[in-house]
Design goal:
Length: 137
Amino acid sequence: MRKQFYHPINEQHHALWSAAHDVTVPHANLQSVLPQLQALALRTHQWVTVIGAPREIIEQLVAAGISRSRIRWVYGRDQDEREWATEQALLAGTSSIVLSWLGDLSHRSEQRLKMASKVSQTYSFVFNPLPSLTPLH
């Protein structure tokens, strides 16, 4: 489901979508989503994979109570690498949550990530500067 929020670091407008499960997030910044992420992370001993985010995001996750030893951080040099890493992290099935900071997504890329998340039953949040045209569930 597509939701709008403001990024706490640079206050740029982003869209948030959750692909595997319908996680309803109110219009808010990342700080208000962290309790939900912590609750989801505590359900399993799998990774919380963060792709394309600055180091400050990792620190926010740790401050929210997610163990640093369970956070897998992938930076990615460009959009293609981050999209590929997101899809691979979802398909591997070793993460309970995948958080990705991606640029503009093509409709095809968006659908591929949606399907990967659904198949693996992994919670996936993609922060994108443009709203998703298709609600993902």
